[in-house]
Amino acid sequence: MERSEKYIQYDGTGANSVQKISLYNWLGSKFTGVVSYIRNHPQEFFLQVLTFVFICLWIFVGSKKVFTYAEFRASMIRQPFADQYGIVLSYILPAVELATGILFIFEGTKRLGFWFTTFLMLVFSGYVILALRDTWGSIPCDCILEFPISWKAHLWVNGLISIACIVGLLLDWKIRKSFKTTRKPILGL
Question: pLDDT per residue over 66-78, tens digit each?
Fold first, then answer.
């Protein structure tokens, strides 16, 4: 190692091993911190995992409709309701799904995202129930399903998502309630 006026030049001996050890220590401390957080705050961690899952779900579902819009619009027009409703829904559904995903990103709107998801799952489940009961004389095409599963399985998935939303709302309520009771007033007010 030589020292010039402003810079220190390394000859390459031992510099990489020092960096690897410090990176290893840094990763170890971060992993230990995460494990400690999960142990001390399991409800907050589970709520964050649910939030992340719903962000991914709604961004994936909404963007898939946007990127394959021509196919999605055609499938909406083939549904058993009037074509003008299919056209309107082909615009509204991707926007609502993407907006719901965005609601989960911000702490202040996360609860609203859980409520919107619960509402959307109830509406989608109602549509699936109508399709399974042969309300229109036949089951509409499978082209509207986001995942390659049957209509009955889709109903189960919607139910599980609804239950996860209710759990998320309850956890969010419990965490906010405990935060309000442990927070100290400012300046004794």
Answer: 999 998 888 888 8
